[in-house]
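User: Hello! I'm new to structural biology and keep hearing that structure can be predicted from sequence alone. Could you demonstrate with Ornithine cyclodeaminase? Please show me the input and the output so I can see what each looks like.

Assistant: Of course. The first part below is the input, the amino acid sequence of Ornithine cyclodeaminase. The second part is the output, the predicted structure written as tokens.
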Amino acid sequence: MSLSKPGPMSLVPFVSVENMMRIVVERGVERTLVELADYIEEDFRRWPQFDKTPRIAAHSPDGVIELMPTSDGRSYGFKYVNGHPKNVRSGRQTVTAFGVLSDVDTGYPVLLTEMTILTALRTAATSALVAKYLAPKGAKVMAMIGNGAQSEFQCLAFKAICGIDTVRLFDIDVKATEKAVRNLQGKGLNVVACKSGEEAMEGAQIITTCTADKQFATILSDNMVGPGVHINAIGGDCPGKTELHRDILLRSDIFVEYPEQTRIEGEIQQLPEDHPVTEIWQVMTGVAAGRTSDKQITLFDSVGFATEDFSALRYLNAVLKEHQGQQMLDMLADPDDPRDLFGMIERYGKAAEAL
């Protein structure tokens, strides 16, 4: 028997992992990626409206825990996310996340949701959205270096948003590549498993790197990258963790989300602080140029930024109006008199004693 019925302002919509999966399956992965990319682009185009700050990070030898907040003045969103590469050894995810969207006027949350799946979707959607502006015209082949949890989302996003038809996969862990090949069967892509990074590069106009080890690494050496390609570097995302040889950066035109964060966490942590970069929102709004020649190497040094999670939360909140894929959590105290929180506890105690 319940002692207390939640008040009308107690309940907050919550999307569980199961409900998130159901929404994505019912909607379709590719449709979800395309729609999500539209929300991300819309928010990049109104970049000046957002509060912006580098994410708040707590680093340890094994990983990082981060908070990623932002607001557009009407809504406030934040994501809690970790990155622990060693987790795979114990059967855990490298990245897990949850997030909250709130109303600025009242401070009340309007949505609480899992964001492990949602982050995978928004990361892939952002990658392909940016490539729409930077990749060579008519690009059809992508090399996917690093075939972990993010790889299939990346491949399908580039198919749905950029029109690629072939992915060439490589991972130092053969089982990861086998997993990605298996998952991508029947998805409308020509999937090629490769035995080396060099083999994966053959014929690729787009190169995506997405590895997990928390270290300075050389996933791409300078001689692997020819003219005219677009590099989508998404694995380097914390201090001391990179994937590209420094010489590649010096040959590339570099595009970033938020320079103050990327200079700490991205590939450009290898370069002087005044090395020129272009903010991707400026390309989307026409303030800055994207790809300007067939021989240009474009590099999206992506570390993920809070506005992308805000867009994902905003998108999911809109989708829930169609799908009703949420539970209602008794999360906020709602006493009869807003000034009498203590009295609410007292009345609960008396009701408990009466049972």
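User: So the tokens describe the shape?

Assistant: Right, they're a compact way of writing down the 3D structure. Reading them back into a model, for example: The mean pLDDT is 94.
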